[in-house]
Protein backbone atom coordinates (compact mmCIF):
# COMPACT_ATOMS: atom_id res chain seq x y z
CA UNK A 1 0.00 0.00 0.00
CA UNK A 2 1.46 3.33 -0.96
CA UNK A 3 2.04 5.96 1.68
CA UNK A 4 0.13 9.20 1.29
CA UNK A 5 2.80 11.87 1.45
CA UNK A 6 2.00 15.52 1.06
CA UNK A 7 5.18 17.47 0.42
CA UNK A 8 4.06 20.77 1.88
CA UNK A 9 6.62 23.28 3.02
CA UNK A 10 5.61 25.48 5.92
CA UNK A 11 7.52 28.28 7.55
CA UNK A 12 8.83 27.07 10.90
CA UNK A 13 8.11 29.47 13.70
CA UNK A 14 10.66 29.89 16.46
CA UNK A 15 10.49 27.14 19.05
CA UNK A 16 7.43 27.34 21.09
CA UNK A 17 7.15 24.58 23.19
CA UNK A 18 -4.00 18.84 24.50
CA UNK A 19 -7.52 14.45 30.38
CA UNK A 20 -7.68 11.37 28.96
CA UNK A 21 -8.44 10.34 25.46
CA UNK A 22 -8.14 6.67 26.16
CA UNK A 23 -11.77 5.98 26.87
CA UNK A 24 -13.08 8.43 24.34
CA UNK A 25 -11.51 11.17 22.25
CA UNK A 26 -12.56 14.67 23.01
CA UNK A 27 -12.64 17.99 21.27
CA UNK A 28 -10.50 20.51 23.05
CA UNK A 29 -12.47 23.54 24.12
CA UNK A 30 -11.27 26.88 25.30
CA UNK A 31 -11.70 27.65 28.98
CA UNK A 32 -12.75 31.05 30.31
CA UNK A 33 -10.17 32.23 32.83
CA UNK A 34 -10.57 35.47 34.77
CA UNK A 35 -7.40 37.52 34.90
CA UNK A 36 -6.55 38.46 38.54
CA UNK A 37 -7.20 42.08 39.54
CA UNK A 38 -4.19 44.26 40.17
CA UNK A 39 -4.34 47.98 39.48
CA UNK A 40 -7.11 47.51 36.98
CA UNK A 41 -9.35 44.65 35.87
CA UNK A 42 -8.42 43.38 32.39
CA UNK A 43 -11.16 41.66 30.43
CA UNK A 44 -11.75 37.95 30.78
CA UNK A 45 -9.84 36.01 28.12
CA UNK A 46 -10.24 32.52 26.71
CA UNK A 47 -7.29 30.19 27.17
CA UNK A 48 -6.28 26.77 25.96
CA UNK A 49 -5.70 24.25 28.70
CA UNK A 50 -2.30 22.62 29.08
CA UNK A 51 -3.38 19.11 30.05
CA UNK A 52 -0.71 16.74 31.41
CA UNK A 53 -0.22 13.26 29.97
CA UNK A 54 -2.75 10.72 31.31
CA UNK A 55 -0.05 8.92 33.35
CA UNK A 56 2.82 9.83 35.67
CA UNK A 57 5.93 11.28 34.10
CA UNK A 58 7.96 8.18 35.02
CA UNK A 59 5.27 5.69 33.95
CA UNK A 60 6.74 5.06 30.49
CA UNK A 61 10.23 4.23 31.73
CA UNK A 62 12.53 2.68 30.65
CA UNK A 63 11.17 3.21 27.13
CA UNK A 64 10.67 6.96 27.51
CA UNK A 65 12.44 8.58 30.42
CA UNK A 66 10.90 10.89 33.00
CA UNK A 67 13.39 13.53 31.87
CA UNK A 68 12.26 13.32 28.24
CA UNK A 69 8.55 13.37 29.06
CA UNK A 70 8.85 16.15 31.63
CA UNK A 71 10.94 18.34 29.34
CA UNK A 72 8.86 17.61 26.23
CA UNK A 73 5.58 18.43 27.99
CA UNK A 74 6.78 21.11 30.41
CA UNK A 75 8.85 23.11 27.94
CA UNK A 76 7.84 22.40 24.35
CA UNK A 77 4.12 21.63 24.73
CA UNK A 78 3.72 24.41 27.29
CA UNK A 79 5.30 26.98 25.00
CA UNK A 80 3.04 26.01 22.08
CA UNK A 81 -0.02 26.49 24.30
CA UNK A 82 1.24 29.77 25.76
CA UNK A 83 2.12 31.18 22.35
CA UNK A 84 -1.22 30.13 20.89
CA UNK A 85 -3.05 31.81 23.77
CA UNK A 86 -1.13 35.02 23.19
CA UNK A 87 -1.86 34.93 19.46
CA UNK A 88 -5.62 34.35 19.75
CA UNK A 89 -6.21 36.82 22.57
CA UNK A 90 -8.71 39.53 21.60
CA UNK A 91 -9.33 37.95 18.18
CA UNK A 92 -12.29 36.11 16.65
CA UNK A 93 -10.41 32.85 17.31
CA UNK A 94 -10.75 33.26 21.07
CA UNK A 95 -14.15 31.54 21.09
CA UNK A 96 -13.21 28.69 18.73
CA UNK A 97 -12.30 25.12 19.58
CA UNK A 98 -8.66 24.26 18.99
CA UNK A 99 -9.64 22.05 16.05
CA UNK A 100 -11.47 24.97 14.44
CA UNK A 101 -8.52 27.28 15.03
CA UNK A 102 -6.30 24.82 13.17
CA UNK A 103 -8.68 24.50 10.23
CA UNK A 104 -9.31 28.24 9.96
CA UNK A 105 -5.68 29.30 10.23
CA UNK A 106 -4.32 26.70 7.81
CA UNK A 107 -5.86 29.06 5.29
CA UNK A 108 -5.78 26.71 2.28
CA UNK A 109 -2.03 26.15 2.48
CA UNK A 110 -1.06 29.73 3.31
CA UNK A 111 -1.07 29.40 7.11
CA UNK A 112 -1.57 32.32 9.43
CA UNK A 113 1.06 32.81 12.16
CA UNK A 114 -1.03 31.11 14.88
CA UNK A 115 -1.36 27.88 12.89
CA UNK A 116 1.94 26.28 13.93
CA UNK A 117 1.39 26.82 17.65
CA UNK A 118 -2.26 25.74 17.53
CA UNK A 119 -1.49 22.60 15.52
CA UNK A 120 1.45 21.68 17.72
CA UNK A 121 -0.65 22.12 20.87
CA UNK A 122 -3.23 19.71 19.42
CA UNK A 123 -0.62 17.29 18.09
CA UNK A 124 1.09 16.96 21.44
CA UNK A 125 -2.02 16.23 23.51
CA UNK A 126 -3.04 13.68 20.89
CA UNK A 127 0.45 12.14 21.05
CA UNK A 128 0.46 11.77 24.87
CA UNK A 129 -2.79 9.87 24.64
CA UNK A 130 -1.37 7.55 21.97
CA UNK A 131 0.82 5.98 24.67
CA UNK A 132 0.29 4.05 27.88
CA UNK A 133 2.41 2.03 30.30
CA UNK A 134 2.59 -1.57 29.11
CA UNK A 135 1.38 -0.68 25.63
CA UNK A 136 2.53 -1.76 22.22
CA UNK A 137 2.52 -5.19 20.55
CA UNK A 138 -0.19 -6.33 18.15
CA UNK A 139 -3.58 -4.69 18.70
CA UNK A 140 -6.91 -6.38 19.30
CA UNK A 141 -10.42 -5.54 18.27
CA UNK A 142 -11.73 -3.78 15.20
CA UNK A 143 -8.54 -1.85 14.51
CA UNK A 144 -6.71 -5.14 13.90
CA UNK A 145 -9.45 -6.30 11.52
CA UNK A 146 -9.16 -3.07 9.53
CA UNK A 147 -5.36 -3.22 9.51
CA UNK A 148 -5.55 -6.71 8.00
CA UNK A 149 -8.16 -5.55 5.50
CA UNK A 150 -6.26 -2.47 4.35
CA UNK A 151 -2.61 -3.56 4.73
CA UNK A 152 -2.84 -7.34 4.35
CA UNK A 153 -1.28 -8.13 7.74
CA UNK A 154 -0.23 -6.37 10.94
CA UNK A 155 3.44 -6.92 10.12
CA UNK A 156 2.99 -5.13 6.80
CA UNK A 157 1.30 -2.20 8.52
CA UNK A 158 4.10 -2.10 11.09
CA UNK A 159 6.72 -2.03 8.35
CA UNK A 160 4.99 0.81 6.49
CA UNK A 161 4.32 2.88 9.62
CA UNK A 162 7.94 2.56 10.71
CA UNK A 163 9.11 3.52 7.23
CA UNK A 164 6.92 6.61 7.18
CA UNK A 165 8.18 7.64 10.62
CA UNK A 166 11.83 7.08 9.78
CA UNK A 167 11.76 8.79 6.39
CA UNK A 168 9.95 11.97 7.41
CA UNK A 169 12.78 14.36 6.64
CA UNK A 170 13.57 16.67 9.51
CA UNK A 171 10.84 17.51 12.00
CA UNK A 172 7.31 16.17 11.69
CA UNK A 173 4.84 13.40 12.42
CA UNK A 174 3.63 10.05 11.08
CA UNK A 175 -0.07 9.19 11.32
CA UNK A 176 -2.56 6.37 10.95
CA UNK A 177 -5.80 7.94 9.79
CA UNK A 178 -9.25 6.96 8.63
CA UNK A 179 -9.81 8.41 5.18
CA UNK A 180 -12.87 7.52 3.08
CA UNK A 181 -13.49 4.58 5.45
CA UNK A 182 -10.02 3.15 4.84
CA UNK A 183 -6.89 3.15 6.98
CA UNK A 184 -4.10 5.23 5.47
CA UNK A 185 -0.60 6.14 6.68
CA UNK A 186 0.42 9.75 6.26
CA UNK A 187 3.47 11.75 7.22
CA UNK A 188 3.49 15.49 7.72
CA UNK A 189 6.27 18.07 8.12
CA UNK A 190 6.60 20.44 11.03
CA UNK A 191 3.18 21.17 12.61
CA UNK A 192 0.87 19.85 9.89
CA UNK A 193 -1.75 17.28 10.88
CA UNK A 194 -4.50 15.39 9.03
CA UNK A 195 -7.30 17.60 10.37
CA UNK A 196 -6.58 20.12 7.63
CA UNK A 197 -7.63 17.59 4.97
CA UNK A 198 -10.66 16.33 6.90
CA UNK A 199 -9.04 12.99 7.73
CA UNK A 200 -9.64 11.28 11.10
CA UNK A 201 -6.39 10.75 13.06
CA UNK A 202 -6.19 7.49 15.01
CA UNK A 203 -2.50 7.26 15.92
CA UNK A 204 0.59 9.43 15.68
CA UNK A 205 4.26 9.42 16.55
CA UNK A 206 6.25 12.61 17.09
CA UNK A 207 9.52 12.49 15.16
CA UNK A 208 10.78 15.94 16.08
CA UNK A 209 14.23 15.37 17.60
CA UNK A 210 13.15 16.78 20.97
CA UNK A 211 10.74 13.82 21.29
CA UNK A 212 13.53 11.27 21.54
CA UNK A 213 17.02 12.77 21.52
CA UNK A 214 17.68 12.61 25.29
CA UNK A 215 16.96 8.86 25.26
CA UNK A 216 17.95 7.74 21.77
CA UNK A 217 20.23 10.49 20.42
CA UNK A 218 20.22 10.15 16.61
CA UNK A 219 18.78 6.59 16.64
CA UNK A 220 15.31 7.49 15.39
CA UNK A 221 14.57 3.92 14.15
CA UNK A 222 15.18 2.57 17.68
CA UNK A 223 12.78 5.13 19.14
CA UNK A 224 10.14 4.22 16.53
CA UNK A 225 10.48 0.48 17.21
CA UNK A 226 10.22 1.03 20.96
CA UNK A 227 7.16 3.24 20.51
CA UNK A 228 5.37 0.58 18.46
CA UNK A 229 6.49 -2.41 20.55
CA UNK A 230 6.19 -0.98 24.06
CA UNK A 231 4.16 2.24 24.21
CA UNK A 232 1.24 2.44 21.75
CA UNK A 233 -2.19 2.54 23.38
CA UNK A 234 -4.35 0.46 21.04
CA UNK A 235 -7.24 1.07 23.46
CA UNK A 236 -7.06 4.75 22.52
CA UNK A 237 -6.84 3.91 18.82
CA UNK A 238 -9.91 1.65 18.98
CA UNK A 239 -11.85 4.34 20.86
CA UNK A 240 -10.92 6.93 18.26
CA UNK A 241 -11.94 4.55 15.50
CA UNK A 242 -15.38 4.18 17.09
CA UNK A 243 -15.75 7.95 17.29
CA UNK A 244 -14.54 8.50 13.74
CA UNK A 245 -17.03 5.98 12.35
CA UNK A 246 -19.88 7.46 14.41
CA UNK A 247 -19.13 10.97 13.18
CA UNK A 248 -19.25 9.78 9.57
CA UNK A 249 -22.81 8.44 9.82
From TrEMBL:
The protein's Enzyme Commission number: 1.15.1.1
Known catalytic reactions: 2 superoxide + 2 H(+) = H2O2 + O2
Subcellular location: Plastid, Chloroplast
Residues annotated to bind Mn(2+): 72, 124, 206, 210
Annotated ranges, domain Manganese/iron superoxide dismutase N-terminal: 50-132
Family under the similarity heading: Belongs to the iron/manganese superoxide dismutase family.
Cofactor(s) the record lists: Fe cation
InterPro entries: Mn/Fe_SOD (IPR001189), Mn/Fe_SOD_BS (IPR019833), Mn/Fe_SOD_C (IPR019832), Mn/Fe_SOD_N (IPR019831), Mn/Fe_SOD_N_sf (IPR036324), SOD_C_sf (IPR036314)
Chief site of localization: plastid
UniProt entry keywords in alphabetical sequence: Chloroplast, Iron, Metal-binding, Oxidoreductase, Plastid
One MF annotation (Gene Ontology) recorded for this entry: superoxide dismutase activity
Principal EC category: oxidoreductase
GO cellular component: chloroplast nucleoid
Function: Destroys radicals which are normally produced within the cells and which are toxic to biological systems.
Stored Pfam families: Sod_Fe_C, Sod_Fe_N
Name recorded for this polypeptide: Superoxide dismutase
All copies of domain Manganese/iron superoxide dismutase C-terminal, residue ranges: 139-240
Amino acid sequence: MALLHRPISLPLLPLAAPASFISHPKHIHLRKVAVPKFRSAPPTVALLNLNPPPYDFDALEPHMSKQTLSFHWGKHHRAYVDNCNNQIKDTELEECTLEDIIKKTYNNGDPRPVFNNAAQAWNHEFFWECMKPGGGKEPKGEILELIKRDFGAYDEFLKEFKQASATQFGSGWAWLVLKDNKLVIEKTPNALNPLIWGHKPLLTIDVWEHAYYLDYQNRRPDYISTFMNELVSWDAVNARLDRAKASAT
